[in-house]
Amino acid sequence: MQEKQQTQLKASPKSESAKFEEVLKNYEAVIGIETHVQLATLTKAFCSCPYNYGAQPNTSICPVCMGLPGALPVLNSKVIECAVKVGLALNCKLSLSSKFDRKQYFYPDLPKGYQISQFDIPIAAGGYIDVDLPVEFGGGHRKFGVTRVDLNRAGVPLLEIVSEPDMRTGIEAAEYAAELQRLVRYLGVSNGNMQEGSLRCDVNISVRPHGQPEFGTKVEIKNLNSFSSMSRAIDYEILRQAQLHSEGEAHQIVQETRLWEEGAQKTVTMRKKEGLADYRYFPEPDLPGVNLSEDYISTIHDSLPELPETKRRRYENLGLNMQDVLFLANDINVAAFFDATIATGADVKLAANWIMGDIAAYLKNEKLSINDIKLTPEELGELIASIKGGTISGKIGKEIADPSEIEKIVDRVIANNPKQLEQYRGGKTRLQGYFAGQVMKESKGKANPALLNKILLEKLNSKP
Amino acid sequence: MLSSAQAPRLLRSPAAATTTAAALTIKCLHTSPILTPAATSPSPSQILTTRKSLLSRQTSAVDLAKSFLQRLRRHEPQLSSFLYVSPDDVVLKQAEELDTKIKNNEEVGPLAGVLVGVKDNICTYDMPSTAGSRILENYRPPFDATAVRKLRDSGAIVVGKTNLDEFGMGSTTEGSAYQVTANPWDLSRVPGGSSGGSAAAVSARQCMVALGSDTGGSVRQPASFCGVVGLKPTYGRVSRYGLVAYASSLDVIGCFGSSVADAGILLHSISGFDNFDATSSKQEVPDYASQFVALEYLESKPLKGLRVGVIHETLENGVDSEVISSVRGAVSHLEELGCTVSEVSLPSFSLGLPAYYILASSESSSNLSRYDGVRFGNQVFGEELNSLYGDSRAEGLGSEVKMRILMGTYALSAGYYDAYYKRAQQVRTIIRNSFKDALEKNDILISPAAPSVAYKIGEKKNDPLAMYAGDIMTVNVNLAGLPALVLPCGFDGGSAGLPVGFQMIGAAFDEEKLLKIGHIFEQTLPGYSFVPPLVADEWTG
Ligand SMILES: [Zn+2]
C-alpha cells in the first residue's frame, strides 16, 4: 500500500535558516537530480518472472535473469508504456526510435557482465516540470528542466529521470522530487515510495560565487530517503561548500559521492571519484529498437489523467487558496473525491473544508485512505447542500457520539428503506454508502462517522 | 504433399572424373536430356524416404536408428564429429515410441524417426552443451533451445552433440577445446568450421541432418568442405533462444542435409517467431517442401526468367582456379535450366571481412563476460573476486576466444569506438544497401562458398589471418542478414578430389526461392556423387 508520505516540508529552525540566508547572499548553489523510479509492472523488465514490486528482486529464477548461455532478454512492453506516460507528463519530446545499449562491467550480482540501459538515445528528452513551492516556504511557482527520461538497468524495471541543474535550494530540490512522486502516482506507473526505494534521488550539487559563470566542483549525495532529508542534506552541503569557498579552501571540494547521515544530520564522504569508468557501451543486439508510432503516443496521451499541475491551476481558478490547492491536488484520490463532490454542485470552499477538515482528521485517526471510507462524494454533496440550504443550521452542531441515539436513527433509516435493505443483503454491499448517507442526513450531519459505520454494519449484517 | 515431390536419383557416378571443366561438360550434356531421371537413383531426401518407409511399415524407426548409430560409432574414432553421443537405449526408446504410434495408426510428426545431430553450442536439456569450451565443461542447460524443442516436437531424435570451434569462433573446428574433427573426404583435412562436426556427421551419414550455427559462414563453409547442403537462414527466421551467443546480431541457427530437400524441410520445422527471442521474425513461414517439383514434372527450362547475378569480386585473385571453374560450371548449369545470368559488382565486398571481425569480436567480448567462473563450468578458486574471474577465464577459455575478446574489448573502448566499432557499423550499412540493390536487379546472387577446398589439419592453425581470409565469401551475407544456400557442385582434382560448394544468396526471407532453385539444380546436376568414399560402400541412401 502507499505509504502516507508527507510531501509537505517542515520549516527548518530559525537560526539555521538565517545562516542559510546569509550564505545565499554571496553564493549560489547549482543542483541537479537523477531520479530512479521503479515501475509497477507485474513482471521483470526482460523476462516473464513475476516482479515482486517493492521487494528486493534478488531471486533469479529463470534462464534469462540467471544469464544462462543461450537465454535472451525480451522487453516487457508495459515498461515502454510507463516511460511514454512519464515522458509525456514531463512535457518531453519522445524519440520515435530509441534503442537499448549494453553497459559493461563485472559485478557479482550482474550475471551477464552487463546491464541493459539506454545510453545515447533516451526514450524521451528535453522536458520540464512545474512546481508550486509550499506556502510556508514563501510559495511561488518554478519550472525545472528535465534533460532526459530513459529506460535503465536490467531486471528491475527502472526509469531514470535526469533534471537540468535548475534547482538552487534544498526546498526547490525536494519539491521537484515531490512533484515527480505525485506525477508517477497520478500516472499509476509507480508507488513512488522513497523508503522502499521505489523512488530514489541522487543529487548533484555545486556552489559558486554569485556572478561566476562556470560551475563549481560537483559533489553527489546519496542515501536520501525522504524529501525532508533531501532538503536538509542539500542545505547542509550548500553551507559546507560555501564555507570552504569563503575560507579560500574551495580546492577541498572534490568530485566525490557523499552519504547523508540522518543521525548526525550531515554528509560524509563515501567514495572519491577515480578516473572515468569505461563501460564500453554498444547497442544491445538482442533487442530490436524501440519504435513508437505517432498513433501509439497519441493514444497514451489521450489516456493520461489530469496531471497535478493542470489540477492545481484548475483549483486555483475555482477560487481556492494555494494552501488548499496544494493539499487537495497532492493525492490523486483525494483530488478525485473533491472533484466528484463539487460535480454534485456542492460549494467549492465548503467541500474543500470538509475534506481537509473533518474527513482528513477522520482518515488520519483511523489510518484509512479516502478510498476506504463509506461516505460517497454524492452524500457529501447532499450534506453540503442541506447545510447551505439551511436544512441543517449554519455551523454544524455538536457531534452525536451517543451510540443509542445513532442506533435509533439507523433503525429508522433501515425501516424506511426495505427495498435497499433487501438488495444489500442480496449482495449489493455498495449500498452501505447509501445507508450511511441517509443516516448522516437524518442526523443532520452530526453522527460520529466511525460510530455510525460500526452500528450500521452490525444492523445491516445481522440476520433478519 | 511431401511424399510425391521426390524422384529417385543416383548421385554416385563414375562419370564424375570427366566433369571438372564443368561449363564445357554441361554444354555437351545439354544435347542429352538433362531432365531425365536416372532409373537406378534413390531419393535424395532422407527425411522423405524415412517418412515413406516408416508409414508404409517397410522399416521401423528402431532399425533405422540402429543402423545410423552403428555407422556413427564405426566412423567416430576416425572423424571425431561428436562431442557427445546419446546412449543407444535413449535413442532406441524414442524410436520404439514412434514405432508404437505408427503401429497404432497414431499421428506422428513430419520428422518422425529423423536422426539429428545438434551443434554443441545449441542447448539441449538432456545432454551437455559445452559450445566446445572448457569453461562450459559438463554444463547441462535446464532447457532446450527453441529450434531443438521444435525438432523434438516434430518427432526427430537427437543422436548427439557435434564438435565445433570454441563458441563458434573459427573456420576449421580445430579450435574446439576437446578434439579435432576430420573431413570424411580426406581424414588429414579439416571439415571446415565452426560447425565442422555437424557437416562431417551429415557427410559421413552419421546422422540424417544436423543443426549448425552461422555467424560468418560457420554452416556454409563446412558444408562446402564436406560436400553437403548448408542453409543459412535470414537473420530472425529461426529463434536464437538456446543458441550460445557468439555475436548476437550475426548469429543464426542453420541446417545441414545431404539434399536441398532435407535442408528445406529441416528449416521449415525450426522456423518462426518465438516469444523468447525478440529478434525473431513474425514473417510467415512457407511450406518450403511444397515448392519442390519432382524431376519427372519439370519443364525443359524450369528456371526460365530467373535472374542470376554472379558476384564479380568473388571470382577474382585469391580464389582457387578449380573452385572458380566448378562455380562457373554451376552457373552454366543454371543457365541451361533457363536462368538469365549476368555479372554484378559489389565494390564493398572486400570491406566485409574487417567489418565482420570487428563487430563479431566486439559483441563476443560482451557476450562472453558471463563466463566468469562463478556460475557455470570450471571455477578456479581465487583469494578475491577479480582473481577468481581472471583465473577462471584464463584457464577456461582458449586462445582464439581470448584473442577475439581482447580485440572486441579494444574496439569498444573509449577513444577507439569511433575508429573501429562505429566505422564497422557504417560499413555494415553500406554492405546491406549494396546487397539490397543487387537483389532488386537479380533474384539470386552467386559466389563460391569458400575460396578453396578443405585444407590440411594444422595448415592455418598458426596463421589466423589466413584463416580469417577464408571467410571472405560468407561474412558479407551475415552482415546483410540475408539467407544463403550452399550446395555441392563439383570437385577439386577429379572424382577422387574434394567437394566444392557454391553459394546462392537470396533476398531477406526468400529461402523459398533458394530452396526451389537448389532442389532443381541438385536433381539435374549430372554425374556427381557427394557421398564420401569413406562410407560410399555401406551407404545405400
Ligand atoms: Zn526471470
TrEMBL record, chain A:
Q: Where in the cell is it found?
A: Mitochondrion; Plastid, Chloroplast
Question: Biological process (GO) annotations?
Answer: glutaminyl-tRNAGln biosynthesis via transamidation; mitochondrial translation
Q: What is its main location?
A: mitochondrion
Which Gene3D superfamilies does the entry mention?
1.10.10.410, GatB domain, N-terminal subdomain (1.10.150.380)
InterPro entries named in the record: Asn/Gln-tRNA_amidoTrfase_suB/E, Asn/Gln-tRNA_Trfase_suB/E_cat, Asn/Gln_amidotransferase, Asn/Gln_tRNA_amidoTrase-B-like, GatB, GatB_C_1, GatB_Yqey_C_2, Gln-tRNA_amidoTrfase_suB_CS
> What Pfam families would the database entry show?
GatB_N, GatB_Yqey
Q: What class of enzyme is it?
A: ligase
Molecular function terms in GO for this entry? ATP binding; glutaminyl-tRNA synthase (glutamine-hydrolyzing) activity
Is Ribonucleoprotein found in the keyword set? no
Fill in the subunit field for this protein.
Answer: Heterotrimer of A, B and C subunits.
State the name under which the record lists this protein. Glutamyl-tRNA(Gln) amidotransferase subunit B, chloroplastic/mitochondrial
Q: Which organism is it from?
A: Perilla frutescens var. hirtella
Q: What is the primary gene name for this protein? A: GATB
From TrEMBL, chain B:
Q: Which GO terms describe its biological process?
A: glutaminyl-tRNAGln biosynthesis via transamidation; mitochondrial translation
Primary localisation category = mitochondrion
What GO cellular component entries does it have? chloroplast stroma; glutamyl-tRNA(Gln) amidotransferase complex; mitochondrion
Keywords for the protein's UniProt record, in alphabetical order: ATP-binding, Chloroplast, Ligase, Mitochondrion, Nucleotide-binding, Plastid, Protein biosynthesis
State its location(s). Answer: Mitochondrion; Plastid, Chloroplast stroma
Question: What SUPFAM superfamilies does this protein's entry cite?
Answer: Amidase signature (AS) enzymes
**Catalytic residue list:** 119, 194, 218
Q: What is its EC number?
A: 6.3.5.7
Recorded catalytic reaction(s): these are: L-glutamyl-tRNA(Gln) + L-glutamine + ATP + H2O = L-glutaminyl-tRNA(Gln) + L-glutamate + ADP + phosphate + H(+)
A molecular function (GO) term? glutaminyl-tRNA synthase (glutamine-hydrolyzing) activity
Q: Which NCBIfam families does UniProt cross-reference here?
A: gatA
Q: What does this protein do?
A: Allows the formation of correctly charged Gln-tRNA(Gln) through the transamidation of misacylated Glu-tRNA(Gln) in chloroplasts and mitochondria. The reaction takes place in the presence of glutamine and ATP through an activated gamma-phospho-Glu-tRNA(Gln).
Its name, as the record gives it, is Glutamyl-tRNA(Gln) amidotransferase subunit A, chloroplastic/mitochondrial
Organism per entry: Perilla frutescens var. hirtella (Perilla citriodora)
